[in-house]
Amino acid sequence: MASKIKKAGHALTPYRARVELSPGDAVRLTRELQEMTQIDLAAASGIPQGTISALERGRVTLGAERAEKLARALKVHPAVLLWPKPKLNRGGPDDHALDRDASRVNP
């Protein structure tokens, strides 16, 4: 059971539902945030669109050389694509609590 956190007289229960990103998820998410299609990314990186599709679906491994080409095209550090271990909230009840109290630190 999640522990309670006292903050300004209120008890908050940390939200634990998380999702981890794979390298393919990181490529797709970064590409979409930059409003690029797979074809746009293929043209910018020199990596075929079919390979980018396979990377995003987890059917092909990313590797350092591909990560460098994609990172350059996406204007991010290769580590963002190779090791996307930050965990993201998946729409839980604490999302609004985090908006109200940006100084709260997740355990």
Task: Describe it.
The protein is mostly helical and 107 residues long. It has a domain of 72 residues: lambda repressor-like DNA-binding domains (434 Repressor (Amino-terminal Domain), Orthogonal Bundle), CATH 1.10.260.40. It is 47% helix and 11% strand. It is built from 6 helices and 4 strands; from the N terminus they run βββαααααβα. The strands form 2 sheets. The chain has a two-stranded antiparallel sheet. Strands 3-4 form a two-stranded antiparallel ribbon. A hairpin with a 2-residue loop joins strand 1 and strand 2.
Summary tags:
107 residues, 434 Repressor (Amino-terminal Domain), two-stranded antiparallel ribbon, 47% helix, disordered C terminus
Average pLDDT metric: 78
Distance between the termini: 14 Å
Helix content class: 40-55%
Q: What is the CATH C-level name of the domain at 20-91?
A: Mainly Alpha
Name of the CATH architecture of the domain at 20-91: Orthogonal Bundle
Count of individual beta strands: 4
Shape: elongated
Structural class: mainly alpha
Strand order of the largest sheet: 1-2
Q: Approximately how much beta-strand content do the residues carry?
A: 5-15%
Q: What radius of gyration results from the CA coordinates? A: 18 Å
Helix count from the secondary structure assignment: 6
Main beta-sheet strand count, sense and barrel state: 2 strands, antiparallel
In sequence order, what are the helices and strands, one letter per element?
EEEHHHHHEH
CATH H-level homologous superfamily name of the domain at 20-91: lambda repressor-like DNA-binding domains
Query: Looking at CATH, which topology of the domain at 20-91 would you report?
Result: 434 Repressor (Amino-terminal Domain)
Low-confidence stretches: 93-107
